[in-house]
Amino acid sequence: MLDSFWFNVEYGINHVLDINAYDHVLFLIVLTIPYLFKDWKRVLLLVTMFTLGHTLSLVLAAYGVVHVNASLVEFLIPITIMVVALFNVFTAGKGAQKEKVGVLFLSTLFFGLIHGLGFAREFRMLLGDSDNKLVMLLEFALGIELAQVIIVFIVLFLGFVAQTIFRFSKRDWIMVISAIVVGLVIPMILNSDFLA
């Protein structure tokens, strides 16, 4: 029992930290860079919204409620990253991330849904005809959340170092990292099977 628990949690962690599927990490980077350690509650809430969306779409896919075009989802994932990165670029230094729980949180939930759909087929194979799909999903979601908290901590720490030790302005930090991420996702969008 404990073996399968750790397997599913580890699977969730590896899903996020997989170097070959770094889209998840890129999304977390652009989601986190506008914030500092003192904003940890807001960041945790954002990350949890993402996990919630991700888990919800996996539940719907696991129980056969939704079936989606894989190439469309693979195209939409880098689009979601691009949208958040561009949002950062256009709002850097304007305090848009401090606004009430609204557009950013709803879009994060929506992006979580899309990212979850991108993983649904592989996850269905993992589930097979298991009787306790929901338990496996929750264990997997726990792994995702743990990995995301690790990444968020690293991004916040790097932001702290860049802004206090290297004296980057917050605006420059957000602009530079968002621009790098945009540069990384453009090829993902252009090489998508959906556009082929």
Topology of this protein?
Layout: H1 2-17, H2 23-32, H3 40-62, H4 70-91, H5 103-127, H6 133-164, H7 170-190
Helix pairs in contact: 1-6, 2-4, 2-6, 2-7, 3-5, 3-6, 4-5, 4-7
How is the main sheet built? Answer: none
Total strands: the figure is 0
Beta-strand percentage range = under 5%
Tell me, rounded to a whole number, the average pLDDT: 89
Which stretches of 5+ consecutive residues score pLDDT under 50?
Answer: none
The N- and C-terminal alpha carbons lie at a distance of 45 Å
Order of helices and strands: HHHHHHH
Q: Number of helix segments?
A: 7
> What would the principal axes of the Cα set say about the shape?
globular
What is the number of independent domains? 1
Structural class: mainly alpha
How large, in whole angstroms, is the Cα Rg?
A: 17 Å
* Helix content class: over 70%
Describe it.
By secondary structure, the protein is an all-alpha fold. It has one domain (2-195). 76% of the residues lie in helices and 0% in strands. It has helices at 2-17, 23-32, 40-62, 70-91, 103-127, 133-164, 170-190.
Summarize the structure.
The protein is mostly helical and 196 residues long. It has helices spanning 2-17, 23-32, 40-62, 70-91, 103-127, 133-164, 170-190.
List its traits:
196 residues, mainly alpha, 7 helices, 76% helix
